[in-house]
Design a protein that fits this description.
The complex is a heterodimer.
Chain A: H1 3-14, H2 18-61, H3 65-74, H4 82-99, H5 105-128, H6 131-161, H7 168-223
Helix pairs in contact in A: 2-6, 2-7, 3-4, 4-5, 4-7, 5-7, 6-7
Chain B: H1 11-32, H2 64-69, H3 73-77, E1 82-83, H4 90-102, H5 104-108, H6 113-158, E2 171-177, E3 183-190, H7 195-207, H8 220-224, E4 225-230
Antiparallel strand pairs in B: 1-4, 2-3, 2-4
Helix pairs in contact in B: 4-6, 6-7
The chains are: A mainly alpha, B alpha+beta.
């Protein structure tokens, strides 16, 4: 819009003290990173849910495990969901153990479950990556913003002390520029907290799904001749 | 499974979306507020309530032309209740001294013609100076009167009048001020005969801190210590 508005906003930031500028820069970086993770996780979790649903559907409609294994391995790495990897790991381990003669059925099942468990842990770790970052951004960045604001207001009031006739016009710009830091901190924190809660819940649900699938698949394998 | 490195297909779109969100945020900051800082500072004014209007709009004392046109009004209308300890005409005294110095000259050297001329010149210049100084004195006097009236008015606002005070009761107080108008001391010099009234006025003087003083710092000497005569009515 108007150039003057633009200029005064830029002035507001460029006139701030070095520490406030540092805080603003840090918050901008953190906010960028947290939004990037938010979108990254959003896409990842959404596709994970979709792939899980697809594979569950395939699993219950197709009782031939060899075909299922082929289905799981045929899709490229990109389209492979966590559940497919868990299934593949369990199935490969089961087939390997079955081929070795003299292994007890209980030991076969035990090994299969261990293999599935390991893959499950790895997948959960992948899904939960960056969530801790979102949590710390959500809890810390308001304080960082507040720190910048307090510092800026301290400066504004110190400047006020040098002026004989104190009017609101002397402090108002300083306080406004200081409050930009709080605004940025909140802007980083609020979405991060919301996203963290949302994603933690989503991942929790996925984890329950994986768990129950592992149990069900173990049952299926146990029934195999 | 050896595949521990997973393909992350959404890095770029997520990054672009993050940039878009920040763009929106800063756009809101830019355009959501009106950042123009051309606010007009409200003009500060102090209002003093006057019981009666002064005759003449007080002219700036520094302007001598207006003074000539308008003789000092407060002297006529309001007799100043404040009696200054120092006399108001120290300047004419000096002028007289100059005159006295100038006069003997022609007396001693009468025969010499040029001397009288010089004396005349001197007398003329002394007279001009006297007129100028008179003008200055009246200008100062007007400012002093004006602020005496203001001080009176301010104290009058703060007096809680006890009942049964005679109209002509007037006490004299010796008021000592600090530069800036703070009341350092207010001592009763001469009682009005009504102790309650004396106390009320004393309290009012202390409560009126700071008293209005002329902006010219040179005039403060007149107010450093002055006698304040306070009557119940103006």
């Amino acid at each position: 819009m108007e150039v003057t508005q633009d200029l005064s906003f830029v002035h507001l930031i460029s006139n701030a003290s070095v520490l406030v500028q540092l805080v603003m820069g840090l918050l901008l970086l953190v906010s960028m990173l947290s939004w990037w993770y938010i979108f990254l996780k959003m896409f990842a979790i959404r596709s994970e849910v979709k792939l899980t649903e697809e594979f569950e559907e395939a699993f219950w409609h197709n009782q031939n495990l060899n075909e299922l294994y082929k289905y799981a391995n045929s899709s490229s790495l990109r389209d492979q969901g966590a559940l497919e990897r868990i299934f593949a790991a369990g199935f490969v381990e089961f087939v390997k153990l079955k081929k070795q003669h003299g292994v007890e059925a209980a030991a076969v099942m035990e090994g299969t479950r261990r293999a599935m468990r390991a893959t499950y842990q790895r997948e959960m770790d992948r899904l939960e990556s960056h969530l801790a970052f979102l949590a710390s951004v959500g809890s810390v960045s308001p304080y960082v913003g507040l720190f910048g604001t307090v510092w800026g207001i301290m400066n504004a009031f110190r400047g006020l002390a040098n002026v004989g006739q104190a009017t609101l016009a002397h402090v108002a710009p300083g306080i406004a520029e200081a409050l930009v830091a709080t605004a940025m901190g909140l802007f980083a924190a609020i979405p991060a907290v919301v996203a963290y809660n949302r994603y933690a819940h989503d991942i929790n649900r996925l984890s329950t799904r994986f768990d129950s699938f592992t149990e069900e698949f173990s049952n299926v394998l146990q029934r195999q001749p | 499974m050896s595949a521990t490195v997973y393909y992350e297909p959404y890095k770029l779109p997520a990054g672009i979306l993050a940039l878009v969100v920040h763009g929106v945020f800063f756009a809101l900051l830019y355009f959501g507020f009106s950042w123009n800082r051309q606010f007009t500072a409200p003009a500060t004014m102090s209002v003093e309530l006057w019981a009666s209007l002064p005759d003449e709009v007080a002219a700036p004392p520094a302007n001598p032309k207006v003074e000539e046109a308008a003789p000092p009004p407060p002297k006529k209308i309001v007799e100043p209740d404040i009696v200054m300890p120092e006399k108001k005409k120290p300047v004419p005294k000096v002028v007289e001294a100059v005159k006295a110095k100038a006069k003997p000259k022609p007396a001693t050297r009468k025969p010499a013609e040029p001397d009288t001329r010089i004396a005349d010149q001197q007398a003329a210049s002394a007279q001009a100076e006297r007129i100028k100084q008179d003008e200055q004195a009246t200008a100062i006097g007007r400012v002093v009167d004006e602020y005496q009236a203001k001080i009176q008015a301010k104290i009058r606002r703060n007096v809680v009048m006890p009942p049964g005070v005679a109209n002509d009761a007037h006490g004299i107080y010796l008021v000592t001020l600090l530069p800036g108008g703070s009341v350092l001391n207010a001592v009763l010099k001469k009682s009005s005969g009504n102790a309650a009234y004396d106390h009320a006025v004393e309290r009012a003087i202390l409560k009126s801190d700071p008293l209005p003083l002329p902006p010219d710092a040179a005039l403060f000497n007149r107010f450093r210590e002055f006698d304040l005569v306070f009557k119940p009515t103006e």
